[in-house]
Amino acid sequence: MPLDPQSYHQAVDHYSRGQHAAALAVLAPWLDEASADPEALNLAAMCEYAMNRMDRAEACWQRAIAGHPHHTGAYNNLGNLYERLGRRTDAEAMYRRSLELNEDSADAHYNLGNVLAQQDRLADAERSFRSALELRPDFALAHNNLANLLARGERVPEAEAAYRRTLAAHPGYADAHNNLGNLLAAQERFDEAATHLQQAVELRPDWADVHVNLGRAFAGQKRYDDAEREFRAAIGLNPRMLAAHQKLIELLDGCGRFAELEHACRHVADIEPGSSDAFRNLGTAIYQITSRSHLERMGEAEAAYRRAIALQPEATGAYLSLGDLLQEDPARIDEAIAELRQAFALGARGGQAQGLLGTALLRTGRYAEGWPLLESRYDGRWEEFPLRAEHVPYPQWRGESLVGKSLLVVEEQGFGDTFQFCRYLSALKLLGPAKIAVLWMRDDPLYRSIPGVDASLTHAELPGAPPFDYWCFLMSLPALMRTTLDTIPRTTPYLFAADDRIEYWRKRLPSDALKVGIAWMGEPRPHLRDDFCNFSRRWASARDCLPLLGVPGVRFVNLQKGASARQDLATLPSHFRPLDPMDEADNFADTAAIIACLDLVITIDTSIAHLAGALGKPVWILLSSKSCWRWLLHRDDSPWYPTARLFRQTVPNQWDDVIERVVAALTEWRGNQPSLADAARGFI
């Protein structure tokens, strides 16, 4: 019996109002017959689909097709059902059959494009979307999904143009604003991205995903308060949305708000108690807090990492974090190395993994195994270098004979690294090269004093320089020369201040007392968040040094440069403030000349320590409990600098005991120095 128009329209009205059961009740008389009306079956299937009764929906569409093989809508709609169920091959077959019957169906072309894209058949999917758009040029969904496809294929300009066409036709289409915003943010065009993502939020304020995306764009603009607001808005809409929680955690971590970070991580661990990542993040949050105070809660951090491992025994990141944590206690260094090795056994690779294990091994003096792993610093996740290996047009030196060859050595990382490892340049000369040139990141007159350098280049000069047979990074030389503790080139000095600069500074420094240089603060390096020599471990305040500055018979000379140092010095009582010549020091050549005029240098682990050691000046170096790998463990001397004496923290992050021991040592040292009057008479 054919479906009467009045009943059909009544059923359609119920369906459009979401009254699916009522629509089915109207259609029921036309569904039981063997020759049921195809439109009744199609509409009934749509009702069953909307009610999530997929078996019944499939049966209705199959009956419609069986009784009416040319019903294109039934094929298309059954394809939609199969696509939803993940039966992509069946869905593709239905869409293609629908198009065989009606090749002018824009919807069928669009649906086929979607299922092909899900199978990563991007070229076929693109053809289908373009066919849909030829038939319906204002088809917003097809424009948007074509743009998504182009973005997946890294055809960014075409994708951007497709999104903009979508929005030109449908300016209120939130999905297109969101997708275009994400595309622009990926290109770091954060201002444009934020504009589109804000429009998406205005159009769909209850869409948690777009709040996260807008927060990411705000973070890219460094609008951190706005970013936080959006991440919290997403969490308010979907309290279990891990992506929003993760972005909030990253923001709090980056802003140094560690108490809030711990709270956020605990919340995620509470809602996802089976998540290994949640407990790893919690452990890291506790570690961040305690590594900046007294480490009383390191046990909590360790327990969180071990919980992460228990939940996911193959979680390499948790082993890496645990290995990093255990190094806080020098007595547990072997445990730390064991955890890091386990991460490697499970497949951990990349800059962080190799760097953590490499530096742990170097701390214990296992140089043969540690040096090769330190090469991971070239991984972009550790630090961006002005010159990448793939950009150098010469072969990288791997230890081949240098006899008669030319070698370009590339400076890298911090000044302290350069001062420590430039000693190898003179050692390279013993290998018989015809020419050694150095490509400097920074120009400093002090570099002209380095033995063994035939030529110096800047990055601007490199393209016009004659070709070299080989090149290498400066910090790769210990590995290439197979350095062990016994073979470190330890002859000092190997850097030299210019005589005229020494004379200049000698006239400006006091001559009536022993002169001791002092530096208490390393250079902040926020781009190296995982740096094993991070700023928080290379920092004390000027007030921490007050007992030291009060030692009688000594004139202290500031070696700390910059606005932060001046502000810190201003907190001291005037009679404790050291002489400060650093405003006149234009470069490290001046600093080296000042150090040459001193009797002793006392410094935190910073470039001043390496400069004083390279100049052969007596230098006392104050180290944190988790000191940098280059200072090894459990010793008060350094194989790198014969004139160095090391003073290590016995209580993590506490300098009081260190300063007390330095005061005692300085008092004894001062008593052992000849008086200036005796020195003037020649009684030494």
Automatic annotation (TrEMBL):
Keyword DNA-binding: no
InterPro entries hit by this protein: TMTC_O-mannosyl-trnsfr, TPR-like_helical_dom_sf, TPR_rpt
Keyword Ribosomal protein: no
SMART domains given in the database record: TPR
TPR repeat start and end residues: 72-105, 106-139, 174-207, 208-241
Keywords of the record: TPR repeat
Gene3D superfamilies assigned: Glycogen Phosphorylase B (3.40.50.2000), Tetratricopeptide repeat domain (1.25.40.10)
Full protein name: TPR domain-containing protein
Organism per entry: Caballeronia catudaia
